[in-house]
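Box 3.1 A note on notation
Throughout this textbook, protein chains are presented in two layers. The first layer is the amino acid sequence; the second is a token string describing backbone geometry. Keep the layers aligned when reading.
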Amino acid sequence: MFADRAKIFIRSGKGGDGHVSFRRELYVPNGGPDGGDGGRGGDVIFEVDEGQNTLGDYRHKRKYKAEDGQEGGKRRCHGADGKDVVLKVPEGTVIMDAESRKVIADMSGDNKRQIVLKGGNGGKGNQHYATATMQVPKYAQPGQPAQELEVLLELKVIADVGLVGFPNVGKSTFLSRVTNAQPKIANYHFTTLSPNLGVVDTENGGFVIADIPGLIEGASEGVGLGYEFLRHIERTRVMIHIVDAASTEGRDPVEDIYKINKELESYNPEIAARPQVIAANKIDCIFEDGEENPIDRLKAEFEPKGISVYPISAVTGQGVRELLFHVKELLDTCEREPIVFEQEFFPEDVLVAENLPFTVEHLEEDEHIFVVEGPKIEKMLGYTNLDSEKGFAFFQKFLKDGGILEELEKAGIQEGDTVRMYGFDFDYYK
């Protein structure tokens, strides 16, 4: 089954925690700290697979998780890094944050591989925290947490030219004539439920053409399969608007063009402003009956607006060569730079702040004194003025937000007990 959209949950690996240990060897009575660092968590990576043309794999499995880093070990042993998870997608896939629909990555052009979620860094072992005043640090740095995100994958077909028009006007027949594509062709509406790509070769050069599934009125508002169809024309530089000039189903070709252009305008005005050519199809079914020739009517309506009209028959091939030459000339006047969607959402911005370690312990001589140590505390005390009311309020907020008060409560602190931090004593009150 063709699938051009999927919503999945991705999670990078958590960094391994640093280890707390001390060197214990014969004849080394006071060995120093030798706790190793934790391993780095695995990344979530998206990679273009040229052999894929659908997001169908992501309809069945919706959760993907990289491996966590391992904890550090004794004797300065470094924990193993977690394995990355690599997700293969077809070229043209746009990865978006599911909630905001902002673009994280566009897997097209030169972007063949991108890290979307980075694994957490491993925590440092206690060997890094030995100082002249703290020679036996009993703490190590926890590993950075994993990142997780729900993302929306959308496949936006990469083609130079898009075929647009109502269902059953002959787009699939036209594509099968001008390329080696073999779309299903039948006389019923919504024949094409997925884009068909083909390469056109002409004497003045070649280009990629896509048969965009048939649109209906209200498609820009999501009626029918509107959005699923419209997203595929976002990258095209020129559009061939195919109409049933013979009105074999009783529709007015002039009215049809205005309706489709209205849907394009509603969906994205920038797309509607791109060069367009009208292919007046099924001229083999037009018979002289004294009424105004539909080709003349189309030309009178649209050529003054700068839109060329080419009468063709996708069945017999009449007029097709002239149309393709004109399309290639239009492409040559357009920008050749591929349309790539810029990144708008940066997952790394939601990473937590530096996660430094700390310990909470009872003082052995007095159970009403709790000692809090670690670089997290030492760093904060170094640049906070506790003599000012504002500075002290900031420090209290730091203790709460950093989880330090929570750890003190877990350790059993009571009102009136003392908290000791690097030469500072505080009375604890809720």
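The two ends are 61 Å apart (CA to CA). The chain is about 20% helix and 25% strand.
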